[in-house]
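I had to read the description of the data format several times before I understood it. In essence, backbone conformation is discretised, so a fold becomes a row of integers matching the chain in length. I therefore recommend that a typical entry be quoted early in the introduction. For illustration, here is how one protein appears when written out as sequence plus structure tokens.

***
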Amino acid sequence: MKKYRIGVEVTLEVIGGKWKSIILYHLTTGKKRTNELRRLIPDITQKMLTQQLRELEKDGIIHRIVYHEIPPKVEYELSEYGLSLKTVLESFCAWGERHLDKVYGDRSAVLEDCPDYTYEHI
């Protein structure tokens, strides 16, 4: 059994890396098909997206919903357990936006999709 020193290690093991947090963040707004996720995350390869989705599903963070129709339709959504990460992901987003403001003075200069969040309480 692997030993951890702090909970952050565990969290980063499950949702860390370049893509998982981004995938999860997009799923906080609702179900997404694979092609929708590819449009939202244009730099991810199909192979990497599939791998990350499988790992998140294996960890119980997301559900894969298969509709038995022609053509086949598959959607992904956060599980109830995965929904518990929403606050964590929003905190990551808020911190990143504050960091961009600190570094660049105005996050909208470097952040393509800049929602007007106010996370002063975070």
